[in-house]
């Protein structure tokens, strides 16, 4: 595996950190939404890697090595020497916002023989990540792993962009298939958030749209908890996500709010909130988040045969808001576990995709550090 990384700052060109020739590399470009709206961005990357498979995604912060940047573009180009990648795309507008059907169509485009892993970079403004995963895994008993994340737009929640081999645009969902016997790919996630306050029952919901808790309008109840911070919704919701337990025995999933509808008194979450679920508010601290990142790295390393050569980190914008000036500490915690020889890239997101430890089925998470490790 060969890699090249680069950083682009506003009104500057990409600065390559370790330039070496690459043949048909996978080029992952994560960046600030305003910078990826520049009509020249694809041509600029294409000039650097003429035969590359170029994938874009907007962020709520860019990760490169042990650094967290804002308002930049980070690029990681990877040449796999013993394996290969296949990249496919779909747009939510072509499926009448039926995200499960989109997932089914997307996975149908990938040959299953030797498919080791599917890494997804999805638009993050409207997608129901739970439904998307259901579609991608609808065949069940699949032998490949699945991880990835939803694009971000800082804390603006205006629009997110992604693309494959073209300028970034809205509604795109990109899937990258990794093929080859020589590949070892592991993924994990961990949060570090704790519940507080009374447990409520979801009495009315539809997919990822939450109407009522305990028979009362969910948005009104949530605003009551937030108090004066309610005027900052949906941004302030990132500091107080919901823990969702679909059944008594199920693992709790963390859900943050993507949008609110003042007229309908509803909240749109990043993933499903089934009726009958039990929900509680959550909060966290800087130390809890840093420790959670370290635990995520330990889970990703557990049972690996080879040392990782590449790590893709997707962490949540909510974690970044809590960490503030100390955000890089969670990246440093990951690096301390996976080693200094691992190339690190990634971004802060509106949602993360990974299985729980010891499980095969992928889930949509919020407020977690999600890590995917690669070696060949």
Provide a concise account of the structure shown.
Residues 24-217 form the FIST domain. This protein is α+β, with helices and mostly antiparallel strands. The protein has helices at 33-36, 41-48, 99-108, 129-136, 218-226, 286-301, 317-323, 328-338; strands spanning 2-8, 15-16, 26-31, 53-58, 62-64, 67-69, 73-79, 84-91, 115-122, 145-150, 162-164, 172-179, 184-190, 194-206, 209-213, 216-217, 242-245, 253-255, 257-261, 266-269, 278-283, 310-316, 343-349, 351-355, 362-365, 369-375.
Secondary structure: elements and pairs:
Blueprint: E1 2-8, E2 15-16, E3 26-31, H1 33-36, H2 41-48, E4 53-58, E5 62-64, E6 67-69, E7 73-79, E8 84-91, H3 99-108, E9 115-122, H4 129-136, E10 145-150, E11 162-164, E12 172-179, E13 184-190, E14 194-206, E15 209-213, E16 216-217, H5 218-226, E17 242-245, E18 253-255, E19 257-261, E20 266-269, E21 278-283, H6 286-301, E22 310-316, H7 317-323, H8 328-338, E23 343-349, E24 351-355, E25 362-365, E26 369-375
Parallel strand pairs: 3-4, 9-10, 22-23
Antiparallel strand pairs: 1-2, 1-7, 3-7, 4-11, 5-6, 5-23, 8-12, 9-12, 10-24, 13-26, 14-15, 14-21, 15-16, 15-20, 17-18, 17-21, 19-20, 22-26, 24-25
Helix pairs in contact: 3-4, 6-8
Structure characterization notes:
With 376 residues, the chain is of the alpha+beta class. It folds into 2 domains: 2-190 and 287-375, no CATH class; 194-282, no CATH class. Helix content is 19%, strand content 39%. The chain has 8 helices and 26 strands. It has helices at residues 33-36, 41-48, 99-108, 129-136, 218-226, 286-301, 317-323, 328-338; strands at residues 2-8, 15-16, 26-31, 53-58, 62-64, 67-69, 73-79, 84-91, 115-122, 145-150, 162-164, 172-179, 184-190, 194-206, 209-213, 216-217, 242-245, 253-255, 257-261, 266-269, 278-283, 310-316, 343-349, 351-355, 362-365, 369-375. Strands 14, 15, 16, 17, 18, 19, 20 and 21 form an 8-stranded antiparallel beta sheet that branches. The protein has a 6-stranded mixed beta sheet with strand order 2-1-7-3-4-11. Helix 3 (99-108) packs parallel to helix 4 (129-136). The longest helix is centred in the C-terminal third of the chain and has 16 residues, at 286-301. The chain is globular and about 60 Å long. 48% of the residues are buried.
